[in-house]
Amino acid sequence: MTQKIGRNDPCPCGSDLKCKHCYGGPRQEPRAAAEVEARDSAVPRALGWLAERHRKAMQAALDELLFEQLWPEGGPNPNEIDESMHDMLTVNVLELLLAEGAIQIKG
C-alpha cells in the first residue's frame, strides 16, 4: 500500500517544492526575456488586430460598456472629457472587453 502525499510534503517530481506549490513537473528555468516580452505585448497586439479588422464591433462594444454601463449618472458628458482621459479609459475598457471575450463580431 502506498502512502498518500500531503500538501506540505515534498513533491515526488523532484522539484524540491512542497506539493501545494508544485505543478507536478520538473522545476522550470526562468522564462527567456523574449517569452516575457511576447506575453506582455499580447494584449496590445490583439487590440491592434481588432482595431484593424473589426473597428466597428470594437467601438460598439466599447461604447456600450463605457457609456451605457459604467459611466456614472450625473458624470461629465463623455464628449467633454479631455483627450488623455478618453484614451486612458478606452485602453482600460478595451482590455477588460478583451479579457472577458465580450466583443461580438458579425453578430
Describe the protein's topology.
Elements: H1 33-40, H2 42-53, H3 55-70, H4 83-100
Helix pairs in contact: 2-3, 3-4
Q: Would you kindly provide a written description of the structure presented here, covering whatever features stand out?
A:
The chain is elongated. Helices cover 50% and strands 0% of the residues. The chain folds into 2 domains: 10-40, no CATH class; 43-107, no CATH class. By secondary structure, it is mainly alpha-helical.
What keyword list fits this structure?
mainly alpha; 0% strand; 107 residues; 2 domains
Described by strand count, sense and barrel closure, the largest sheet is: none
Backbone shape: elongated
Mean pLDDT, rounded to whole units?
75
N- to C-terminal distance: 57 Å
How many distinct domains? 2
Question: What's the short story on this structure?
Answer:
By secondary structure, the chain is an all-alpha fold.
